Here is the input.
Amino acid sequence: MNRNNTRVLSEDQIRNLTLQVAEDLRKYPSESAEALINLYLNGDAQGMFDTVSDWIEYAEDEIKRQEDNLDYDDQFTPHYNI
Here is the structure.
């Protein structure tokens, strides 16, 4: 079962997640294809689901990390001694 069954993603998060996965496909096309083809050829449906879930959850973690960094930056108010 994937993580999205326990939480809801906003439309912006889904869009960003889609962009992140697309970027991964552009950066690692051969590796991505090879992993999926091997799982397919071995008839490993559970392995394919687990691999895709892990991949998407990793991208989701990256999006969340970026959002958290933006939230932190927005709240950062340095104190200047003048």
Summary: The chain is about 75% helix and 0% strand. The two ends are 55 Å apart (CA to CA).
